Amino acid sequence: xxxxxxxxxxxxxxxxxxxxxxxxxxxxxxxxxxxxxxxxxxxxxxxxxxxxxxxxxxxxxxxxxxxxxxxxxxxxxxxxxxxxxxxxxxxxxxxxxxxxxxxxxxxxxxxxxxxxxxxxxxxxxxxxxxxxxxxxxxxxxxxxxxxxxxxxxxxxxxxxxxxxxxxxxxxxxxxxxxxxxxxxxxxxxxxxxxxxxxxxxxxxxxxxxxxxxxxxxxxxxxxxxxxxxxxxxxxxxxxxxxxxxxxxxxxxxxxxxxxxxxxxxxxxxxxxxxxxxxxxxxxxxxxxxxxxxxxxxxxxxxxxxxxxxxxxxxxxxxxxxxxxxxxxxxxxxxxxxxxxxxxxxxxxxxxxxxxxxxxxxxxxxxxxxxxxxxxxxxxxxxxxxxxxxxxxxxxxxxxxxxxxxxxxxxxxxxxxxxxxxxxxxxxxxxxxxxxxxxxxxxxxxxxxxxxxxxxxxxxxxxxxxxxxxxxxxxxxxxxxxxxxxxxxxxxxxxxxxxxxxxxxxxxxxxxxxxxxxxxxxxxxxxxxxxxxxxxxxxxxxxxxxxxxxxxxxxxxxxxxxxxxxxxxxxxxxxxxxxxxxxxxxxxxxxxxxxxxxxxxxxxxxxxxxxxxxxxxxxxxxxxxxxxxxxxxxxxxxxxxxxxxxxxxxxxxxxxxxxxxxxxxxxxxxxxxxxxxxxxxxxxxxxxxxxxxxxxxxxxxxxxxxxxxxxxxxxxxxxxxxxxxxxxxxxx
Length: 731
Fold this sequence. Notes:
The structure is a single chain. This protein is α/β, with parallel strands linked by helices. It is about 25% helix and about 20% strand. It has 3 domains: about 105-320, no CATH class; about 420-520, PDZ domain (Pdz3 Domain), CATH 2.30.42.10; about 530-730, 2-enoyl-CoA Hydratase, Chain A, domain 1, CATH 3.90.226.10. It is built from 18 helices and 34 strands. Strand 24 and strand 25 (about 540) form a beta hairpin. About 45% of the residues are buried.
C-alpha cells in the first residue's frame, strides 16, 4: 500500500523527494508542542484562547536552518497567550542546596526550634523521622540537594502527621483530557466527550501524640510545592518561605515537551482542586532571591525564624474557580478560501496533530505520519490557489489508509459532486465492467448494459484513469481503494456529457454519449427478489433495503425457514441491533470492542485508549434458530461491518463473498482554514474476541465473486454460491 502515498503526491505534483523544508526539525518540534498543549493544557478548556492564532503568530519565527534561538523564540511566542505561571523554556543550570546526602536530618536552633533537613536527594532511612518532644517550633527545609526525577511523599507525610491534630486533606489533582473532534449531532455520539479528570486524594490522619506546632516551610523553584504543604497553609496558617532564582516557585502537576535534547518546555499539566471545587492557589509569606545555603544563619532559615516569631497571619485563602470545559468546534475560517502562508502551515499541522493524537488506526499506516506532514508543509510554500491548497491536504489525508477518509471544500468541487454516470462499476481481471445501472434513463435506453467493459472515458483510457484516481483516495484495503476510485470515475459535471467507449460480449467497441444524472448512493438491484422472500425453506433478506420498522415482520415471515441468507453487500438502515437480538442463540451480551484515543498529561496516563464493549440486549420476541449465511464484499463498510460483528457474535454464521472494507468506527471530522473538511474513523472497532478489523475487514469463510460471464447473464453468483452451500449442508 505504501506505493499509493508516493503515487498521489506525484499525481498532484506534491512529491518533493530530496527537497528539505527549511527548518523542518524545528517545524516538527513546534508542531508537537502546539499539539500537546492543545490536547491537555487546562487553560485551553473553555475556548477563550485562540490557539490557532497562537501558532500562526509563532510560525514565522521558525525560518531558515534549524536554529535553537529561533525555536526558543517561537515557543515563547506560542505559549504567551496561556499566561502560564509554571512555564519554563529551556533547562537552566540548577543550583542545589549545600547539604551532605548523608547529613543529619535534625539541626537545633535557638528556642528549641527544630530545623529539619528533608532535602530531596538525601539518603533517607526506611522510617519517617520522629520529631523529638523537645521541639517547640519547626522549620522544614524541602529544597533539593540534587536532581531527582521523583520525590516520594512518604517521609514528608510521616513527619507532617506528627504536626497536625485533625485529618489533613490535600488538594486533588485535576487533569484535562481530550478526545478530538466529535459529531455536530451529539445524539449520534459514540465514545467519551472531552473534559477534566479529577483524581482521588489521600487524607493524612494525625499520628499518635501529634502536636500542632508552629511550622515554617522553605521551598524553591527546583521542585513543586507539595500539595500537603498547601493544605497546611490553608488549614493551619503554616508559613512558607520561597527562594527563587530566574523562575518562580510552582505548585501542581507539570508536563514537559522536549523540542530538542537540551531544550525542554515545561508547563502546567492540570490543577489542584479543593473539596469545595475551587482551584488551589498559594502565596509565599516571604520571597527571597536565590541562595542555596541552609542551616543556622542562612537567609532562608533566618527568614523562617522571623516569620515564626510573629503571630500567624490568618488571611483568607485565595478563591479561584476551577477551569471549566466548554465545547469547542473547529473554526472554519470561511473568509480564507485561500489562506495566507502561515495559515496554510497551520492547516497541515492541525490535520497532523488531530490524527497524531486521535486517529486510532495510526499504528496501521504504511507511511510515516511525520513525513506526511513535512511533505505537505513543503507544498504549502508553493501552492498557487485554493484548489491546489485543498489537494495538498487531500494528499496528506490519503496516507491515513482509512476508507472513511475524505477531503472536501468548495475549491475541491464538493458542491459540484451531484451528478454522474448512473452505473456501478466492477474491476475483474484488471478490467472495468458495468456491474449495475442506477439511472432509469440508461436502463431503458439499452445503450449501456450490465457486463459492458469500459474502454475509455472522455478519451482517457479507463485503466489509466482508474490508476490515476486510485492514487487520490484513501482506503483501508486494496479492494476498497479500487471501489472508491471507480466511484470517482462515474462523477461528471451536471451540465456536460460523458463520452464512453464500451465493448460488449462480442468484443466490438462502440461509443456512447451519456447525460449525467443526479447521484444515487444506493446500489443497483442485483436481482428481482423482494426485500424478504422464502424459497425451498431458505429465507433471503436484503439488508440494504430493509427498514427498521420491518424487522419484526421479517422475522414473522421467515420463522418457519430452515436457513437465512442476510445480504449485506451494501449499507444497512439502522437495523443491526434489532436483527442481532432475534438471532442471539449464543446469548451474547456484547459483540465488539471499540477503542477511543484519549490525550492526557503524562502523569495522568499520557496517550491512552478507552475500551468499551458494544452491548447486545435480550430479544423482544422468539429467537430464529435456523442456519445463517451473510453475503459480504468491499461495499460492506462501517455500519454494515458493525452489523456483521453483531451477527457473528449472536449466532453461528457463514460469511460468503469477499472481505469487507475494513473501515468501521464512528466518523469524525476536522475543519481546517478555508473551510476544508477532512473525515476519518474516530474509533477502532475489533471483533468480540479481540481480532483486528481495521484494514483487514470481515473475512469470508467461502470466497465468491462476480464473473464477467455472470454479469452478462444477469446472475448473482455470490447469492448462488450461498444457496449451493445451504443445499450441501441439507444433503
